[in-house]
Structure formats: structure tokens, C-alpha cells
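Researcher: Please predict.
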Amino acid sequence: MKWWMEHKFRMIQNNIRDIDAKMDIDYEIEKLKEFGADVVQIGCGGISAFSRTGLDCQRPSPYLTDDMFKNFVEKCHGNQIRVIARFDVSKVHVSLGEKHPQWLTRRKDGSAVYFNDTVATCINGEYQQEKTLEIIREILKKYPIDGIFFNMFGYVTRDYDRQYIGICQCENCKRRFYEWSGLELPLAEDKEDPASRKYEEFKEYTVRDILEKIHGVIDSINPDIALSTYASHRVDIIRTESNSAVDRPYPFWIYSASDNTASVEHTFSQKVSSNCAINAVDIPYRFMGVSPYLNRIRLYQNLANGSNLDWCIIGAFEDYPDRNNFDGVKEVFHFQKLHQRYFDAFERKAGILLVQPQNPYHLNFKAEYRGMFRILKEAHLQFDVVMEEELDREWEPAREYSLVILPDVKGLKDSDFFRKLTESDTAVLATGASLRETPETLGGLFGQVLGGKVEKVRGSYFKTSPKEIFSSFRNQDWVYLDREFYEMEGEGERILPYISAAMYGPPERCFGHQVTKLAGAVIYKDNKIYLPWYPASLYYQHGYESFKQLILDLLRKINCMEEDFETDAHDSVELFWNPCGEGRYLLQLINLSGFNGTTAGREIPQYGISVKWKNRIPRSVRELTGQGETEVSAGNILEIPVLNVYRAYVVEFETKE
């Protein structure tokens, strides 16, 4: 078994600067050991080389006096710490760009993309297509590294100031796109333009192609070296990030680490997730860390989802100015190290599958998905997450789900997944006018034909009827509608009558609403529910409980609210229930109550939480602590006296002979 598949690792990434070529390596390693890290990811080559390179396509750090990278690898391995070499080939020093203009990304006006003393290179140019492979060969043959990571991999359309670059217009891109598609390279991203849509396919093809080449070089030298980047094809360790940005629009996504790790861990059985908890508040402010409470939440979410631990700072430890997060990182790293056998045995057997949609054209494409993610989390329902684009290509479901949720999944092509879904008795809930781009799938799965958008929805509502379904709305008859709403026709029970918009303004003029024959939802064949609007997006963006309760009432209607346990934990508690061996389960709770929408502050201690198992009694319950394991008296009810940030329990049941 490959090393990255054998055990969950604890990785620290030092994004070293040129000046760190003179770092105190012994001090660095002592800090890594103090944190409990067993993997380090550190700069090696690309923009700057930190090794004694013999290649003219590499520019060594001007502060390099000896073979820093060689010394670092040797001392790490002497302390049982694996090393992943970090590369960034998205840019080169301007001196190399001047010598090799054919390597460079070009804007629409033909200009190169400069940032400080670097200039952007193109994935289709000679540097990334050929020279990168030479760099990898040199490193692999000279140093016994354990992995390779590529930063800013693929098509980079914005610079470090978030300024839009656009589609690269270099001659290499024009030539290769024409040879591949027979079309002229588009000048702008436009979903209405056939060439632009084809360009999206071209980007996927070329990224997969270069990853094939890189993996081929690695396998030819040492197949036990891991490849890692932000893509998935031919990658062993799929990297994601939980990060912050000062200009990022709200809502702030407090479930970032759970989302990132779940989508990778649940989608790929032969790859692992490494979700980096970025210490910095933003790229321009790398020397100040995020709140210690937020940092711990991100790391505990990585842990609780059965993923690896991954944390990053800029530079070396010796002069990093913000040490507020150090103790929290050590706490989580050492906890995982102490109880590693349980996390290594971590399994996923949820009854609900949430499909993570893809849409390359809209910044807010995840709003419906995120809203649904949050609804399920707050209801303490256990669910798996699978990426839409991998449903057929990579993912092989080992069992049937009781419920599949499609939140704004615009199209689901004729596929094995679709056929299995239509042929099974699995319940399906679709929201956000899902499948509107594949009407044959919509008709086959839900018996509906989608019409046009209903105009002037602002000021309109849905009537929460019938009350036998919407039992949470005894005292509320209307729920407001915003965003898109589509007409639909077809078979099934039509519920949630649409109430048309009327006058608004002075109270004297606020009347005239009409209950129409349009439906806000349809129930088809008893357990297939379709909503041609965006309730989860409204919950994600506005937070009104009515939208969450509406979804949960629909899940009760199709008997998809059942779990092995009952709990009175508050909605702000993120709860995990996963097998970790035969008859053994791992119960974990993370307290998110310190998050108020903008600030992740100190959590509010939550007292007297109970977890009750419905149909069986555990033979033992043990709490996992930073000191070891403690037997807990439980019966069929576990009473948790107080929850601060995190608690974990191993629950064992009798197994059948």
C-alpha cells in the first residue's frame, strides 16, 4: 500500500520565500516535531529553486549558498518526517521570460502578465509542457523525496491582485485549440458561444494530458512518490484549501473544511484529501493568522471527516510573526496522532447522498448546494458528498442510498448513475430547477416538463399546503419566493401553490395576491420530489428557518429523516457518526456556536447533550481525550455533560457471529 493510503498524515506546509534559503533547518525540524507533523511540504523549484540545479530553466534563489533542499530532505528523513516538494511553474523570473517569450501567457492585447519580478507562463507553452518535466526528473533523481505538489496548476485567469487576465491568447493556445477543435480560440468566456463551451472541454483535456505526462515521469523513476495538486486526474493527494479573503462576499462558509474533505473523500476511493487550513487571513496579509477558534474548527473538521491534517504558514518558523494558532494546531495534530488507529479505520456509510454540482460560469453556483449542506448538518443527518462530474468516471457506489439530493444540478446525462437511480426505489429530492439542461432526464426521473421562468417573482409567495406535509407551518401559511422560479407540467401530486405578486409600498396598497394553479413542488411516484426554485439558496443567503423547515418536512414525507440515533444537540453542533471497524463507531461533535456570521470567536459551552441509540445498546463507550481513552457509562443514552470545541467517543456494539 502506498504511504499516503496507509495512514492519515499530519502535514505542515512552509511556503518559503527566497530569503528562507538560509533558514535554520535544525530549528525548523524541531518545530515540526513539536507540532506532531509527520509530513512537510516545502518549496523546491519553479519560480525559485532551492536546490543545486543544473538546468537553465531554473533560477536559484539569490540567497542560496549551499544545497538547502538536499540538507532539508536528509534531516527530515532522519527524523521520520516525509517531504513533499512544492513547485510553482505558473510563473518564471522576468529574465527567463525575456529569453523565452514563447513560454508566456498573453492577454487579448498580446501583453504578458507580470507581477513583481515574475511573469506568467502558459500551460500549453514549452516551459510547462517540457521544461517542467526536466525539473521533475532532476529532483527525483537527486533527492529521495516522498511527493510532489504543484501550486496554481492549470489555467490561471486572475493574478495575485485578483485582476482578470482572461483567456490566454498566446500562439501555443491558438494553435493547440485549433488542432484539437477546428475552431478559433475565443476571446472571452461566454456560455452562449459554442467555441467558449468547447474551450471549457479543451481546458479539461489539456490539464488531464499534462498530468498524464507528469505522472508518467514519476512512475518511470519511483512509483511510490505521491503527486498532489488541486486537480483529480492521475493525482494521488487531492489538495483543497479552507482560506479567507478580505474582499470575499458573505455568507462566510463555516463548513468549508467539512465540505472540501467530504467531497474528495466520498468521491474517490483510491485518492486522499489534503485540505489545507490556511493560517493567513488573505494573500496580501500572509503574516497575520485567522482567529484561533476558526483555525481549530477547520482542523477538527478535517479530522472528523476522516481526512488528513494539513496546515500552512508563509516562510520558516523562526521569524513567523503570528504564533496565536500554534497551540491549536498542536492540540489537533497530537490528538490525531494519539488516536490514529481509529481515524485510519474510518468508513463512510451514510444513507443520504448529496451531489455537489458543477458550473464554471457563475461565482454563486454553490449557493443551493451549500444551503442544502447546511440544512442537513443542522438537522444532524449523516450524508455523503460526491462531485457531479465524477459520478460515472471515478465513483463506484458500493451500496444503495435511501435518498439522493440534487441541488441545482443543471444537467445529468444519460449514464449508469442516472439509469440506476431511475430503476431503483431510492428517494430523490431535486431543487434549484435541477436537470433543466437535460429535459429527458427530468422527465424520466420526475415525470415533469419544465416551462419558462415565471416573471416578476419578487413579492410572491408559496402557500404551505397541504398541512399534512408541512406540519412545521401550523402558524405560517405563506413562505416568500425570491430568485428564479419555473413553470412545470407533468404527473404527480402538486403541492406548495404559488401566490402571485401584488402591489407593495404603503400599507394601504399591499393587497391583491392570488393563489394560482402553479406548484412550487411535485411529488412523483411517492418518493421523487422536484422543486423548480431555490429554497436552499435562500436559506444559505438569508438564514430564515422557514426554508430549512420546508425541506425537512419534505424529507419526513418520504421517510428520509431516520438515523441510528436521536440527539438534542443544538443546530450549531456539527455531529459525525462513522464506522471505524467491525461493530465500532466514532461519534464526534464540533461546537460551532462561536460563529456569528462574520466572526469565529470563542465557542459557547453547550451543556447536557444526549445521544440516544434507537435499536441497540452499546457494549462500551469510551471518550477519546488528549491523554488517552476513558470508559464512559452510557446504556443506550450517552449524556455529554459539556461540549466546548470538540469531543469524540468510540462506541462499540456486539457483533453477530
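Model: The longest strand covers residues 515-524.
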